[in-house]
Amino acid sequence: MKQLAIFLCALLFSILSISQTKQAPETPSPIIFIYDASGSMWGQIKGKTKMEIASTVLSNSINDFAENQKIGLVAYGHRKKGDCRDVEILLPINNTSKNKVATAVKSIKPLGMTPLAYSASTVIDQLRKSKEKATIVLITDGIESCDGNICDVIKAAKAEGIDFKLHIVGFGLKKGETQQLECAAKAGDGNYYDAADASGLGDAMTEVASETVDKPKGNHGIYATMNGQPIDALVHAYKAGTKNKAGGTRTYRDTSYVYLPQETYDLEIRPLENSKVAPIFIKGVKTSNEKKTYSIVSFDGGKFLIKTTNNDAGWDTTVNVKDENGKNVGGGRTYGQSKEIELNAGTYSIVIKAIKLNGLQNKITLKNQVITGGETTAVDYNFESGTLEILPKGGGKLIDCTVNVIEVNSRTSVGGGRSYDRGVKMNINPGTYQIKVKALRKTGFEGEKVATVTIKKGEDKKQEFQY
């Protein structure tokens, strides 16, 4: 059910992207599918043959293409057993009929070999003759079974100057079989997609639809690691400070590029290989139209080293660290010393509350504080204060009064209490305050007295009241 939800979300994003293409006056460049019809496509996944799954997904995917989208189709291994030249152009590069593609795919009967290099060469020959640029999508459930190296073919074509983007979808491949395919996709300025089942194949086809040769080349690279090893991660880019999606990509354990026009973005990077690890949010990433930029993300833990001071001297504070959802994930008390807090890599808010400090500036929230895996991030914050001593007197000695200190502009009470026979003394933020004292009846004195004082940083202020 979860995979279906992911697929539907991805499909909706693709449809929205493609619907924009439909409205565009430009004719999109051709997309050419190289379809696996080797004998192994009779293999089954969850009770359905891979041939049936691939045919259905491909037919459904092309329905969302622009009406003027040219769709070519090449198949291999469907006519003869053991023939490494069994590659056929079923539909030419200028075909615009989606029905013809669906009909052709459904009529294919898997039979023979897997000549990946020769299939790629056949398609590249079409581009060489037509002088068109195109997106090539190779769907295969196996590795090269003939004498060829598809990565070498793609590198040679690129060196020749032929303009294309190659995506490869590995359908049900085993671990360790994808090296040559990944090499070819990278050489072809495209991506390698690992599809384990129908949902994975659908996800890959959806992403392919938005990553055509017409899309500008990626200008921002993302590389994600965990415990020193590259991992597969999903990346979403948003215009800074909003939830307006600007692009996305998937790393597939390598540096993956996304095109983000020169601006400032917020990135969400979500690991796909460990669902228990929280995503990392990187704020304020600036891209450039002139050069490539990069974000290297580690999901290893890191540390905050938090130092809190008051008037530049160590000060006791409480610290609470909150994640992107506002959940407390760490904290403690500084006791006037530097406080070390270890957390997963990510972006956090840090709430610092000064102890024994009165006023309106005794609590601060520091937003967008980033921990990078394996590193220590220093966070320093300095409060400011003066001292205020309130001394109510009657008959030449200190008397017991209630005391209330009010910040003048906000009319907020920021401190007070009972003076007893010793007065009230407090550390307080710079500002202007109204002080109200009221003698208790037992003192033999009556009435409330009021005074206004201004406190400056580092100043010791005494305010006497005479009864």
TrEMBL record:
Keywords: Signal
SMART domains in the record: VWA (SM00327)
PROSITE patterns: PUA, VWFA
Signal sequence segment: 1-24
Keyword Signal: yes
InterPro entries associated with the record: VWF_A, vWFA_dom_sf
Pfam families in the record: VWA
Domain VWFA: 30-208
Protein known as: VWA domain-containing protein
Organism, as annotated: Aequorivita vitellina
